[in-house]
Amino acid sequence: MRPFVFSLPWKILLATISALLCMTVLQTSLGLMRMSEEFDQQQQVKRESARQQYLQQNTIIEQQLRVWLESFSDLVQLSQHPDFSVFIQHLAEQSANMQLHLNIEQIWLHNSDMQLLFNSGQQTPYFSPTLVQKVLKQQSPSTINLCVQSCVKQLSLPVLNASGEVAVMTVTTTLVDILSALHQSLNSDVALIRASKSATGKINRELISSSNPGLIKALLQKVSDLEADLALSEGLELHHNGQQYLISAFEMQSQGVYLTVVDNISDFVATNNGYRRQLLITSVFLFGGMVLLVYLIMRRISLRLKKLSQALPLLSQKQYAGFRQQSQFDASIWPDEVDLLRQAADELSIELEQLNHKVEQHTNELEKVAMYDLLTTLPNRNMLQYQLERMLSSQSTENKFLAVLFVDLDDFKRINDSLGHAQGDKLLKLVALRLKDCCGVNDLLCRFGGDEFVFVLPQQADADAPFRLASQVLQRIQQPLTIDQQNFVMTVSIGLTISMATPTDADDLIRQADLAMHEVKVNGGNGAQAYNLDMYQRVQQRVLLEQDLKEALLLNQFSLSFQPQMTIATGALYGFEALIRWRHPSRGMVPPDEFIPVLEQSRQIVPLGYWIIEQCMQQCLSLLHSGWHHFRIAINLSAEQFVDPELIPTLKRLLDKYELQGSYFELELTERTLVQSIDTMLNIMSQIKAMGIHFAIDDFGTGYSSLSYLKKMPMDCIKIDKSFLSGMLDNAADFQIIASTIAMVQKLQLQVVAEGVETREQLELLRQQGCDIAQGYLIARPIPQPELAGFLEEHFPKGIWRAQSL
């Protein structure tokens, strides 16, 4: 842009210099104007002062009358008399004093039926029955101004006797004192004027009372209807006998009656008019020249700024292209700051347009991320919380309820661990689509997280509707799912809960449905269960058990028992399985089936596992010192401890500490542990195997039995779960499973351990099938650690099972 020749500051400076030249000449004129303004302000203040003083005097009279009447009622103890007879008697006695000292003209007393109980004088027009009725209705004092031939104030006050009857005492007092006080304080003539409309529509004005009746009547004759309104709002100037008067009026409480204040302003008007005539011509010429100069300079600037300002609101409306089009104007010969401002505004609109586009794009993305699941496109947990709270707040209470279904895929972790998370994500998408097919029009389906989904059914009247939906979901999910030409059959666990008449928040409903779902999980999954209070109690017991478990290790409440294992073919002692036992200080011995599942899901399982390992190494050292050399101690290892980074360093440290060989120990892993990342498992097992430690698969056949990991992993032993042995004598299927498992494992050159051997018939069948090792109550029950040495001397003399020699 070209440099400025006449910039905006120079143009404004030129206009300012011209204005200052004119200001010198116009100073006197401005002074006169100030005088006129001050006069108007003084008159306005005086007018307002008259109004305030009238209101103040009026209020003072009201308060005096009200206080006196209330005090009079208390003095005669009206509230203790059953009727008004005594009160009327006292009222008649004191009416003369009231008229004398309080300027009261007349007194009335009416009962609640508007019957006159007392009247201090003759009938008068200064009485308003309407005010009495109003007081009876509202049970509070009220006043009104009445003007007939003169003006009086009527005050009506409710009074109450001991019987609860209400009456209204009414008094009137003249307003002459108010007018006199106003005349003296304002130094102006005051008057009360009544205005009424005649049958012809003409407004008649009647003078009721005045400090100067002659002047007031003469001025009233000159006031038209329109001028009367001006006198009420701003004040009216009138000429009379060569004098200038200012009339101010305001309406009193009595309808059609006005308080009028008249001031003589002749001297001020004459002085003011003289100065105005002297400077009028000069002021007109100078002012006209200044206006013309400023107008010529500022007109173009004003037009351009106006055009730009009219276009600016379009920016707030995000109409950026419209703003740039509407704000355009021709460049001036000498560019100034207005042109620069327009150019900057155009650039700003472009930047705002780009920024708004990015903000909208990012906002949509954030809303999607915050409220929707990116994988399944279903609403997420945040949206579930928001919608559920909204549904609960708007839920109808008449035979309506809200149901929540918590859906969790069974064994979904196996899919992720075996096939990878990519396949798992594809499976979740297909499951979400099938769940959508089950969702009703008004129902809400959300992905709660992981493989968990939540249905919300609002405004339900049919108690069976949630169960029908659960049944539909179970059937729909069980249909085969195909991913990359591979079929999957999935099942789900569903927990149900409903909101009853009692207030329930969203978190409680989700928690209840989650508890019911976990109850289904515990019972094997693939089902639906409604929430009940017993579930909550079981959770409470579980929490207490977890708290006790945290203290058990610190307080040395755990102990070990060792169950011997025997070589079936020779009857020789093979080894031991270390079993954890817990003696609670108040509950006694806690069954392992009760606390081990809780322990496996708590953080205590890892430190407890290291304690067990060290105790086993101490027991191993004790057996070696006692002369036992051919044995192996099996230690159960949890999945959490197996992947713990401290496992391998701890094993090395303890072996070195007790100077033991790893061959004396065997780590038992469940099949659930082995289905995790194959590469990770192999890496850990190879490092442990290098120490000489053996590996065994515990509870074989109850988990994800697969030959694939048996071939890949360096296993030494397979343990058949006792659930198969319990029915092998009576159930041909169980017998065939055991026989097939033994044959398969032996072909893999692994040893087979049969758990739960309790009868000689079972032992004999296992011997016939070539099973290697037996463990169970027939051989020995778990032996507490301090008793193990004595038990071995008695039942395994020279390392051979005593029952074998019999």
Please specify the SSE layout and strand pairing.
Blueprint: H1 8-75, H2 85-101, E1 104-111, E2 116-119, H3 129-138, E3 142-147, E4 151-160, E5 166-174, H4 176-186, E6 189-197, E7 203-210, H5 213-222, H6 225-233, E8 236-240, E9 243-251, E10 257-264, H7 266-311, H8 313-316, H9 320-326, H10 337-371, H11 381-393, E11 401-409, H12 412-419, H13 421-438, E12 444-449, E13 452-460, H14 465-478, E14 481-483, E15 486-488, E16 492-499, H15 506-522, E17 527-530, H16 533-554, E18 558-567, E19 573-584, E20 588-590, H17 592-600, H18 605-625, E21 633-636, H19 639-642, H20 647-658, E22 665-670, H21 671-674, H22 678-689, E23 694-700, H23 707-712, E24 717-720, H24 722-725, H25 732-747, E25 751-755, H26 760-769, E26 773-775, E27 783-784, H27 788-795, H28 802-805
Parallel strand pairs: 16-17, 19-21, 21-22, 22-23, 23-24, 24-25, 25-26
Antiparallel strand pairs: 1-2, 1-5, 3-4, 4-5, 6-7, 6-10, 8-9, 9-10, 11-13, 11-16, 12-13, 14-15, 18-19, 18-26, 18-27, 19-20
